[in-house]
């Protein structure tokens, strides 16, 4: 196969079993013309790489493990493969995506990455005996796209990326265009140094905070001792004021409601007047009523270039995602809520800018967490003529309509003792 440039190995099932034997890994990586390797299976789980083998000069290496699993049983084999890849092909890689559990940050910080443009790290990380992330980034001067989605452990502080050693050296990736971070530390100096090239900024939770709100999901997440420390609206506002990015085109924030949420929302058009896409995941304080759509729209009405608004409003009357298994009229329940979301989208659209084309509202159900897209149609005079759900889309402006998967999604019906009846 002289034209073979991409290999994807995937069994579409959770990790288990002994893993791919090392001679199989060596065979997959051997074609000299291979440039992209996407591995969604674990190599031999019980042993490290037994011998050296030739690897093509890859430009893309991606290793995916199931997000919500404990990967300790697979680390011996996976970590040795990652280390071997780093040592052999780091100079040629342009894109690397690996779990934080096995990222080997010390090896990454000691390697040279002259061509790397995209770095994606996601998972769990023990902060003991690892270098600062900023030390890794210092070896990637041409990085354009950075994603670090690190789960929050029960016993760990929030994630600070900056190191005092770099205060005089400037930002290590001056060409950075997109940045996605989870569980940020509001006191982190990192945000004061972001380069003016940045066009897309995401400050979110990983996994999503809504996965910590229901018992069935939460039990799956607590197996690896994860928690969700939401930043407040005030903390997010403080960080955004540090950024100084008036040319930003896309912003995502996830936060808990507090008394200054209105100030946060009103500050967004002032700080980021050129936004084209805005994603907001906000969570009510316990016992608080639903937020008014008109209040959100009024706060954001000066975003004249906004084309897509994605919003999780955490409405009081949202049905339980597991209602399919508890309520005989669940289909009607979800249908009624979809109509509620359509009315909410209509109220938003009335007061937002004329360039707005889509409002996507989060709709949680057992089988998926979806952004329902509502298309805004205008007449020749620019007035809104229709707000309706667009059922034919799979993405809007490059953003998937599928949000993060729930850890409890599987083919089994939940047992009675796995659901909290008081939640319904």
Automatic annotation (TrEMBL):
InterPro entries membership: LRR_dom_sf (IPR032675)
Domain of life assignment: Eukaryota
Record protein name field: F-box domain-containing protein
Source organism of the structure: Trametes cubensis
